[in-house]
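Risk register update: the risk of archive-format incompatibility is retired. Evidence:
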Amino acid sequence: MNSPDSHRFDPPGRPSGSHPPAGWIEVVCGSMFSGKTEELLRRIKRARLARQPVLLFKPRIDNRYDAVKVVSHEGVNADALPVSTAAEILERVPPGTAVVGIDEVQFFDDAIVGAAESLATRGVRVIAAGLDQDWKGQPFGPVPALMAVAEYVTKLHAVCAQCGAPGTRSQRLVAAEGQLFVGGSAEYESRCRACFVPEQVLP
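Archived output:
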């Protein structure tokens, strides 16, 4: 298990053996503003420095900062392919791809779990980043299932906007319907367990 401050991860080398090399799934999760996207982009950058064929995907619904880039709240960014479904990801990953990154994975439906497993079985390293809890403090979309089948899980913490403790939850600040509401610092802030008010929008 990762310690609270263990935010860096570097994968092991591929073992040698008689069977074709298998890939694996990595999940980077946490609350809003915990650095999930920055950690995803750090791993993608290292893979590219190692000259590995990499593809980076983002959900088409998330166009807060850029339609065709993955962009962190701090402005770190990389070119990405916007997609609407898990099937699109599978269709756009050609043979020979070594690493597939998926940002904001909570916005996909449950089919993303099977897609990630299919890619890993084909020998691809899959790195998925997303929220593990929604604004009600409930498990968010396919992320819990991805965590269950992943070989590696990194849970990051933000800083509680109220008291400075480790922030593990995302407090919604504006009135909006539904779970899939895309927003930034004007719409959400990170809260710790004690300061979080579940199922309530705060002024």
